[in-house]
Write a structure and sequence with these properties.
The chain is of the alpha+beta class and 531 residues long. The protein has three domains: 171 residues, 3-Layer(aba) Sandwich (D-Maltodextrin-Binding Protein, domain 2), CATH 3.40.190; 108 residues, Dipeptide-binding Protein, domain 1, CATH 3.90.76.10; 222 residues, Dipeptide-binding Protein, domain 3, CATH 3.10.105. 29% of the residues lie in helices and 20% in strands. The strands form five sheets. The chain has a seven-stranded mixed β-sheet with strand order 8-9-10-1-11-19-12, sandwiched between helices. The protein has a six-stranded mixed β-sheet with strand order 14-18-13-17-15-16.
């Protein structure tokens, strides 16, 4: 694809309203300037303490801080906690909090905010809170700058959940006395982070301005971050080419455009910077209703999905076949599981459906289903279209339904009004954080997003997860997760389709972008634009 064609796509896809409202990139300089970041789709809210939706994570982390940060080697680094100490028995963690920190409204940050955040907000309302924090019994606050986590069992994984994305610290003085679910400042957030929320112009952009009183001296470097919402894939590519946007992450550029953009002298394309974000893209079955209450039908669909074709056709080779709920990038991964990407997979799928009592009709169709596609853009639509073609090979007629993000989230995670849908879960740095949520019985929580929507569980797998969560011996923990993976893959509540390579595209005038292992899920206080 040549430069002319990309420019034609730019002016063909941009409407007058878009051109009128698109903030142009500021003159580049080492200190200051405006970073234009493409976020897709538009976040449904800014309540990151209640939703782990990917677009929310990209923007809310500019406003809220966590107790810790993590470097590119995934090692814990100080943030709101200057230092910490874990007791020998693993049952308490003492955090020494940074002094002189203020909320964006000028009120002082104290240990009371930490206790309130973890005990009254995250543990109760965060999608992974009741799993990640199940060992947390109390947070003691002996003084304003000390917070002590009291644990019922050792929970070493807790040290891996303290980022601004996973555990944003919120202001007690504003939240207290309100229903957290109806918090009045949810979409005009006040945090301690490097940028202050300024404006959300629906359908167009969000604006975050430099926090002049940020606790990290001299930071942030940037004056402003603008998060642009650009739904059209061609327009996103064109915005990067012309310099009207500086960065976009999480595969928001069509893979067929990556080689072209990478050839431009001012553009970088990288899969670096996601060290704590390995993930798996998969299909979710509603296992409580026919036909997917039958394991044979779930296995048949898993055989039918052509993983390598999806990787080649949708992800342009940026990925590997999914085989397990645990990413192959994690040390806990095991390949000692049932494999569905075998040569005779279609024959096996047809045999399973025959055995399950779903013969082909005169028209060759066994039954019909609706495939609800995760509404995160063209990549997911193309993924869904290939799945429809794959299922047609085994006599399943799948009809696509594509809705806006809030509607899809409610349908899948509140009403369970679906037969099969698609999504992806980040594994993060420990299975307790990113994997258990999809399979444990205690993660069947109506209204909580990105948890166990299939509603499949077993006592055996629950017990394995419970044991692995508190096991300190590495080899024993590995063995527990190997057995867990074998049972999950056999039960097939999900079709593990692809482990995508996450891609960031950015203007090479931008520096410091890859210092975090969370992609763009961080405050970006150390990002600067070259003069």
């Amino acid at each position: 694809m040549g430069k002319a064609s990309v420019r034609n796509r730019l002016f063909g896809c941009m409407g007058a309203a878009f051109l009128a409202t698109m903030p142009m990139a500021a003159h580049a300089q080492e200190q200051g300037g405006t970073l234009i970041m493409i976020v897709q789709p538009e976040p449904p809210s800014l309540a990151s303490y209640m939703s782990t939706s990917q677009p929310i994570g990209q923007v809310a982390t500019k406003v809220y801080d966590g107790l810790l940060e993590y470097d590119s080697d995934t090692v814990e680094q100080p943030a709101l906690a200057e230092s910490w100490e874990i007791s020998e028995d693993g049952l308490s963690i003492t955090f020494n909090l940074r002094q002189g920190v203020r909320w964006h409204d000028g009120e002082p940050f104290t240990s009371a905010d930490v206790a309130f955040t973890f005990m009254d907000v995250l543990r109760e309302f965060h999608p992974r809170g009741n799993n990640n924090l199940r060992a947390l019994e109390a947070v003691d606050t002996p003084d304003e700058h000390t917070a002590i986590f009291r644990l019922s069992t050792p929970a070493p994984y807790i040290m891996r959940i303290l980022s601004s994305y996973e555990s944003p610290i919120v202001p007690k003085h504003l939240f207290e006395g309100q229903d957290v679910r109806e918090y009045s400042n949810a979409n005009t957030p006040i945090g301690t982070g490097p940028f202050r929320f300024v404006e959300w112009r629906r359908g167009q952009f969000m604006q975050f301005d430099r926090n002049e009183d940020y606790w990290r001296d001299g930071k942030p470097y940037l004056d402003r971050i603008i998060a642009r919402f650009i739904s059209d894939t061609g327009t996103r590519t064109a915005a990067m080419e012309t310099g009207e946007a500086h960065v976009t992450a999480y595969n928001h550029i069509a893979t067929e455009d990556l080689d072209y953009l990478d050839s431009l002298p001012h553009i970088e394309v990288t899969t670096d910077g996601y060290e704590m974000m390995p993930g798996v893209n998969f299909l979710i079955f509603n296992t409580t209703e026919p036909p997917f209450d039958d394991v044979r039908v779930r296995q048949a669909v898993s055989y039918a999905v052509d993983r390598q074709f999806i990787i080649d056709a949708v992800y342009n080779g940026f990925g590997v076949p999914g085989t397990s709920p645990i990413s192959s990038k994690m040390i806990w991964y095991s390949d000692n599981v049932r494999r569905y990407d075998v040569e005779d997979r279609i024959e096996r799928a047809n045999a399973l459906l025959d055995e399950a009592g779903f013969p082909r009709g005169d028209n060759g169709i066994r039954f019909q289903i609706t495939h609800d596609i995760q509404p995160y853009g063209e990549v997911w639509m193309r993924f869904g279209e290939i799945v429809v073609q794959n299922l047609a090979q085994i006599g399943i007629e799948a009809r696509i339904r594509y809705e806006d993000t809030p509607t899809w989230l409610t349908r899948v995670y509140t009403n369970y009004d679906f037969t099969m849908t698609s999504t992806s879960y980040f594994n993060f740095s420990d299975p307790v954080i990113g994997v258990h949520r999809g399979y444990h019985s205690n993660q069947i929580i109506p209204g909580t997003v990105f948890v166990n929507a299939s509603r499949w569980y077993s006592q055996e797998t629950d017990d394995l997860m419970d044991k692995a969560a508190v096991e300190l011996d590495f080899d024993t923990r590995m063995a527990l997760y190997e057995e867990f993976q074998q049972l999950i893959v056999e039960a097939a509540p999900h079709v593990f389709a692809v482990e995508p390579s996450l891609v960031t595209v950015y203007n090479n005038s931008v520096h410091g972008l890859l210092e975090s292992p969370f992609g763009s899920f961080w405050g970006m206080d150390r990002v600067w634009i070259e003069q």
